[in-house]
Every structure is written in C-alpha cells, then in structure tokens.
Amino acid sequence: MKAMTLKSFGGPESFELSEVPKPVPQAGQVLVRVHATSINPLDYQVRRGDYRDYVPLPAITGHDVSGVVEAVGPGVRAFAPGDEVWYTPQIFDGPGSYAEYHVANENIIGRKPRSLSHLEAASLSLVGGTAWEALVSRAALRVGESILIHGGAGGVGHVAIQVAKAIGAKVFTTAREDNFDFARNIGADVVIDYRKENYIDAIMRETDGRGVDVVFDTLGGDTLTHSPNVLAQLGRVISIVDIAQPQNLIEAWGKNASYHFVFTRQNQGKLDELATLVERGQLRPHVGAVYALADLSLAHALLETPNNGVRGKIAIAVDPSAGTARVS
Fold first, then answer.
1. Cα–Cα distance for residue pair 276/131, rounded to 1 Å
2. How far apart are CA 30 and CA 75, in angstroms?
3. Cα–Cα dist 164/237, whole Å
4. Which secondary structure element, helix H or strand E, spans residue 232, and what is its range?
5. Domains along the sequence of the chain with CATH
6. pTM of the model
7. 38-52 pLDDT, tens per residue?
8. Could you tell me how far CA 146 lies from the centroid of its own chain?
9. Contact (Cβ atoms closer than 8 angstroms) between residue 88 and residue 65
10. Of 80, 95, 164, 239, which residue has the fewest beta carbons closer than 10 angstroms?
11. How far is CA 76 from CA 31, 105, 110, in A?
C-alpha cells in the first residue's frame, strides 16, 4: 500500500511517499481502507519532533480515519466488511492514518455518520473528541452557562462552538473580523476581534462584570495567566495546548478556579455522542481545504502558516472516492 512516511523529524518536506506492507488485522482488530484523513496541530508537532521519544522512525503518522472496513480479525463482532467507520488512531501506539490502510482495535471505532462525507468525518474525529472531552467530560458545561472559546474559526474551535450551543450555553469566541459571519452562523453569540479589542475588556463588558463560567484555550501563549480575569466565581479553564513557558495563576485563587489539561483519549462512546449531534443537525465540521495524500507536505505547510485564512479543517483525500465537502 502507499503511505506518507516520516523519515526524519523536521519540516513539511520530511514526508516521503512510500510503498509499505498492507497491515493484517489481529484478534479484536479491524482493517480499514482509509478514504480520508485530516491534519491537526498534533500532526505537525509530531513531525517536527516534539514527541520524538514516543515516535520511532521511520513512522506513519496521522490521527484521523474515515473509511470502509476491509477485513476483521478473530473475535470481532461489531463490524463487518463494507461498514463505513471513523475514529482516531491510538496516539503513539502504532502506525497512523497517512496511508491507504489502517488497523485499529474495534473498541475505538465508531460507525460513520451517514450524513457526512468521508472528508467531513475525517475532519471531525480528533477535534470532535477533543471538544467533547474538554467541554463535557472535564468542564461539565451546563445549560445556561457561558463559555469563551479562543480561536472559534479553527479546527477545534469551530466544533467546540457547536457542541457548546448543543449543550445550551452562551458562546463567546475570538476570531478575525473576516470570520465573524462564519462564527455566528455556527452558533457563536458574541464574536470578539482579538486584533482590535482586548478580549478581557470585551467579556467583562458583555457580562456586566460577571465573567464566563468556562474558558476553552486552544491557543496557548499566556492564555492561562489571563483566563482568571474573565472567569466568574468557580470558573473552569480547559487547555488543549502543551505550554512550556511558566504561567502566573495567582489571580485564579481569588476566583476559586479549576484548571484542566486535556489530551484526547480514544473512545467509541464519544464518537457515538458526536454522531448523534451530527444526525440531529446540531454539529457539522467545516472543511476549509482538501489535499491529496501525495501533497501532504503542502497541507502541513499551510496549517503551520500563521493567519492562513483556512476555516475549520484541512482534509486529506486518501482515496478519490472520499467524496466532496464544502471548501473555502
């Protein structure tokens, strides 16, 4: 099978199109013909060597799969050849999704939502699971609460807005002015142009000084330090960013704030919950660009470009039958 192999850690050019053996499913495993995958910040972090101790080279990376079951191993009962499935491969535990075929344990695989193309499903599995883990499992966001989602037009951010609205929360988000309509159309109640206005001032004005119940950090930097300044009492801060720089959290003490750090865990149940929102019309991923597998390096370069103008996710069509998706 064809795969994009990471031969060395470095820039986008570190990938090489290779011919590698097709995997064989073992007991409890499912062999999937990959129709589509997508790219995430985690993918370029792995590529450049941030997790080199966990990724022996050469490696096939990638963390989203949407495809069709090709074969099943002994003991598999939930899936059969021909089933359309989606999932996030187990991170740092075997080959990833930048290949024509992938093998995974059946307990992390879900049935692809029928209303999504493979490109769309592959653009939702990791970011959807991340948003669900952050907002539902960790923040315990409730009906009537408020949340600030940083980077609302991004891959995780645009999904988090929709999940928060499905829960029944009031959603504040930061975005560039040219993404205001996009953010509002997917459910944001208040959109703040972080380049023109201090988001802390905007939140406190819009909430009459109360602050928000939850801050969802998708950006990093000094967000953890500043988050208490927009939090209500007993507020929660959820971060999905690995931040090496020290943070000053003294202001969090006065808010009785709690901080949660999320690294997505693979879980079939989360996929099923997300699929329910999709089928109810409450959640849909936005595909901002599509590349062929052989052009993976170009896709990585685009994702790493600051202010690249891409809304939502960058998808990879591994198979031409992956279907179509909205592109902007």
1. 15
2. 10
3. 15
4. strand 231-239
5. 2-124+285-322 (3.90.180.10), 138-261 (3.40.50.720)
6. 0.94
7. 999 999 999 999 999
8. 21
9. yes
10. 80
11. 11, 9, 14
